[in-house]
Amino acid sequence: MPPSAPSWDSGPPPRPEAPFLFTDRQHNQNERDISHSEIRSHNRNEQEPFLNDFNTERPSPVARRATDWSYLWCRIRQFLTSDDGIGVFKCSLAYFLGSLATLVPAVSALLGPQEGKHIVATITVYFHPARSKGSMYKALVCACLAFLYAAFVSLTSMYVTIIFQRLHMIEMGHALVLILFIGVGFGLLGWTKQKMGDPLVNVACSLASLTSIIVLTKEGAVQRGDVSLDKVSQVLLMLLMGIGATVTVSFLVLPVSASKKLRSNLTLLNESAATMQSIITEAFLQRAEQDLQGRVFMSSSADLKKAHQQLDKLLQETRFEYYVAGTEKELIFEEQLVRWARDITHNLGALHSSALLAFETLRQPKFINYCSEPSEADSITPAPIDRPGEGLPTDASLPQLLDARILEEYSPASIPPVASAVTADKHKVPDQTLVAEIFDYFINQIGPSMRSLGHTLTNISAEALSTLAPDKKPFLDPRVHVALSRAIEEYQKAQVEVFSHLHQDKEKMHIQTPKGDACFDEAAAICAYFSHSLLKFSEQLKGLLSILHNLQAADDLPRKRSWKWMHFWHLHHPSSYNGRYLNPVSSGHSFMEEDIGQPMEMLEPLERQPRVRSIRLVIDCCIQRCRDFFGQDETKFAVKVGAGALLYALPSFVSFTRPFYLYWKGEWGLVSYMLVCSMTIGASNTTGYARFLGTLVGALCSITVWYVAGSNALGLACLGFFMATWTFYISLFKGQGPLGRFIMLTYNLSVLYTFSLSQSDGNNGPNKGKREGLDITKITLHRVGAVLSGCIWGIIITRSIWPISARRKLRTTLKIVWLRLGRIWESDPLTKRLTSPGASTLYMAPNEQLRTEDLLSDLESLRSSARYEFELNAPFPDATYGRIIQHTRSIVNALHALDLQLLSIGPPSPQEASILRHTQRERQTLSTHINHLLQVLTTSITLGRPPDNINIPKVRLARDQLLASLFIHHREEGSSGSILEDGYSLLYAYVLVNDQIINKMADIMADVGRLLTDVGGNITD
């Protein structure tokens, strides 16, 4: 006889909604909105005419055209008043000022009689003013360092050639300049660019290379072996003029505050998080998984991800603003807000993961699939077993293991322990139906309290949004903090009460079979698991209110400016922090709670070593460090950049090839080479293609503009402003930076250079007699040839010398992530709860979370670069890698959700300690199996072979053994209290998360096998 369904009518009635602040008002407002919308929809359906199209007058063509123009004007006005529109206008204005150095004779006279004055306008293209004040402060620091580096390289190279000129060894001097100042010097710029990984540092390196290339290869002083301070000063003055034009526009024309942008970003993040929390909670209560794929949820998720990615950048810019303003003491609040935003993002991912786990469990119950009646065990032929689980096939289900354990412990003395089989099909009951019914019964009891807490969180988040607004004085109603604390306390009480009543009502629900017990525990586990995640989210919001309260108190105090950061002789310890490792004020856990024993353990062996080391040990250590340094990708990239620059610049130092180099403007080809070179082949292909296209488009625009305006300065200035407007729109708004910049680079090299020739003195230099009849097509051809040659040379160097494949780095980073996850599983924090009850034990320490998040971000960027690595064997499987990264991120979110479960409970109770000791062997076995799967994945990617000898049912069997042990312990103890009180909540959550991770890893293995099969089993390119 199959187990009977629970009697839902015998349970207690649904509990009333808790009287939390803002809840009734919000709920009534929602009901009014819904009822009004339904009435309007109903009336519209009833009153809508049958022949609607015949009764409606169509607008005339003039009216439609007027409507289209009005809509277009609204879109244009909206863009012009937005941050992107203001940034485009400021960039165009800065370019206009930079072009005056070429077009206005009075300004042009300050730079002397040379034709390269278009460099000023080119500098404004790369060093643009569409930045915040904090970003511009940092850009100024980088530009000053670039100026000093360029001056050092230029002057030192000249003096080196002078020394060898006096020794009549000028060729040796040229060789040293090529090796030291071009090879090593430009290689150092490439190393700095990749090591820092900062866009502003990239701009500074570009400016330094541009200035140095002009002096070293074009001006000729280094080749002649003399010092030409006029040339050096002219080039450096152009650099300063371009930087000055950009800084002037940035600070004087509609300046942008980084601190306000940070507050706006935090407001967007908080709003998106509140929306996602509300949707996740309501979807969990209504079992509406499709809501998590809806347009509103996906849009909020995209906004949250975008805001989260900009946190570190905006915080750094804000730090510069506070330092310059002398208010660095107030920076601590911004740092705390950023740390809170990072924590709330992780906790929201954990909440999402717990909801997905609940939906997955309801579709396919994890605790039990089918279960036979104990009375039928007598009809099964008994088979002795040595220990629970032995004698069963590797694909045995949990009921078989569970029946074996139960019958071994509780069968009559005349009946030996048996491994029961599955009953006949007629006795099978759909488990998903039973679990879903019990889950609905749980939700019927705990749902009102959970929904009330969700509404309270939504309303308090809206209250916090007004406090975070950048243009408003921070003011937070003190009752909000009290209301949230009361709501959390009331929900915790309601949670304990509901679970206690549910377990007391278990007998009334006629759940008297192992299968019913398992389904009941499974439904209780997923509810408790989601409830813990929701509580941690609530506590994170409580931490935000504490930060805002402190911010409001500090804002009321008189502001004092100190500039103590300038007193570097007093700074024994940094007054601020690295924004990624802040100790928050109010958070679920602190960054200081990470396991500091590990680095101390690493240092202990070094402390025990003798102070005086042998010379051989010191030499070996230095050799190892050198090997590690030269084995890094950044060092390899620097070597090949320097080698390529040396070879490209070599013709400018050979008397036979120097005229050809100057005729085809080889210096701009070298500049293009320095801009194209990227770390990976895919990145170089991406920028190379954009620069190819930008060069061609810029050449066509140059010829068109010159034929339209000729040598008219006013016409060229207006057309240049228009060119800058749409190219900066492409660069800033559309994200096509290389394309827009190379259009303007080619335009400057062609149009502004031709104008300089047309205005140059007819008695000077090689341009004598060429003021009339200038051939813009020929000049543009030379520039296009130079730029394209530099692009091609950059791609050749990137692919021929130590090629760094984005595909290979993508696979390497995946292996690193999987190995980290394997090390995390080996840590076994559940066992540490027994050995170190008072210590904070987590799967992922806060710093580990950030490192893992950085690696996941690197995976996305490498995946984008790998799309442009064109191989002959097979196209890049972008969709497959996307699924692998998504599944890996899901595993990380599941681990973080389990960490929230660990943080939400106190020290282990005697009951929990007993459970942990009882299941220690099974947990270790399951952890070993999961770690083995991760190692198999890593080995498969390394060898380029599909994963083999994988037995996922064996891993699930280990999970079933853990569950069987847990159920047996539950029956032995005879516990009938709440799952929250007995200490089973943690172990049930552990089992659920493990099952979720096993499923994700099975998906990853399937994708990896498909990936290696599609490319013929060879991915070790």
UniProtKB/TrEMBL annotation:
This is Fusaric acid resistance protein-like-domain-containing protein. Residues 655-797 form the Integral membrane bound transporter domain. Residues 24-47 have a biased composition (Basic and acidic residues). Residues 1-17 have a biased composition (Pro residues). Its main location: membrane. Pfam families: FUSC_2. The chain crosses the membrane at residues 139-160, 172-192, 199-216, 236-256, 637-656, 662-682, 714-732, 739-759, 779-802. Keywords: Membrane, Transmembrane, Transmembrane helix. It comes from the Eukaryota. Residues 1-57 are annotated as: Disordered. It is a multi-pass membrane protein. InterPro entries: IVT-Associated (IPR052430), Memb_transporter_dom (IPR049453). It is found in: Membrane. One of its GO terms (cellular component) is membrane.
